Amino acid sequence: MAGCSEVSIEARAVDFYYPGEEDPSRAALSGINLGVKRGEYIALIGPNGSGKTTLLKLFNALLTPSSGEVLVGGLSTREEENLPVIRRRCGMIFQNPDNQLVATTVEEDIAFGMENLALPQAEIQGKVLQTASQLGLGHLLKQPPHLLSGGEKQRVAIAGILVMEPDFILMDESTAMLDPDGRREVLKTVVELNNSRGLGVIHVTHFPIEAAFARRVIVLDRGRLRGDGTPKEVLTDLTLLHGLGLQGTTAVELAALLREDGFALDSQLLHNRELVECLCLLARKN
Ligand SMILES: Nc1ncnc2c1ncn2[C@@H]1O[C@H](COP(=O)(O)OP(=O)(O)OP(=O)(O)O)[C@@H](O)[C@H]1O
Ligand SMILES: [Mg+2]
């Protein structure tokens, strides 16, 4: 896999209870064992309240496990002194970019996280310019962030994380507010960085089609791991998905209905294009 290295995230026998919710039946996460390597592109799916945001916050050391351990690049999130390194390695993007934009111009916003790194001003400036142009924000550097569109704001938030050169980007429904173009723009950027720099991606999404473009899909349900495999393995398993109130991609759902009507379709069709090709093949045979 492009750019894989030793840096990884590991959850070892992690349980997490929010304060006041210590009853085991109210665990936000239970018995989570999970390893994520740098360079992986993971979609994290699950119903509302299944623990997705909590898991990302544990990886980013915003929360620490009630029992068990989370290690980022071998460093425990429990140790106060590891936190700056862990937060730099695992940048988190939230659903609503407004919560992450703090400065008066786009340029200052992107530079904000670097201010604590004691780098020379010229170096900060250079990195900000490079990251902004990579994300198509070069022409907006002097703009106040609150005047930008949702997609542009989300890209500024992403730029502010990427400028720190993290090993992982943790995206918590970061595309949910965006229109299809905005969503495509953000995902394209992340996919390119995954390919070119080996940036590890963990993307929480409720859009099956976004999960289908990951290389690994992890499923949470009521705080427990319920699935972990390739998109073809996990997203075509309608017994699992429907049991959790989730859906497959349009092609998966449609193929299931067509199979009920007697169409002999491959069981691992995931994308519309694959379904169309399969149907065309069947039509030519008949
Ligand atoms: N600050 C909190 N205090 C108490 N309980 C919380 C808190 N935040 C989340 N929870 C509970 O922890 C569980 C997991 O929540 P979490 O936000 O991780 O779910 P999620 O999978 O991200 O859901 P969604 O898809 O709705 O974003 C839920 O039962 C939720 O009610
Ligand atoms: Mg959430």
Key terms:
single chain; 286 residues; alpha/beta; Rossmann fold; four-stranded antiparallel sheet; 11 helices; binds adenosine-5'-triphosphate; binds magnesium ion
Structure description:
This protein has a single domain, classed as P-loop containing nucleotide triphosphate hydrolases (Rossmann fold). With 286 residues, it is α/β, with parallel strands linked by helices. It has helices at 52-59, 83-89, 106-111, 121-134, 150-162, 180-197, 208-212, 231-235, 238-243, 250-260, 272-285, and strands at residues 8-16, 29-37, 41-45, 67-72, 75-76, 90-93, 168-172, 200-204, 216-221, 224-229. Helix 5 runs parallel beside helix 6. The protein has a six-stranded mixed sheet, with helices on both faces. Strands 2-1-4-5 form a four-stranded antiparallel sheet, with helices on one face. Mean pLDDT is 91; it is low at 1-5. The chain binds adenosine-5'-triphosphate and magnesium ion. Adenosine-5'-triphosphate binds next to helix 1.
Helicity level = 25-40%
Enumerate the spans where pLDDT stays under 50 for 5 or more consecutive residues: 1-5
Determine the CATH superfamily.
P-loop containing nucleotide triphosphate hydrolases
Run of helices and strands: EEEHEEHEHHHEHEHEEHHHH
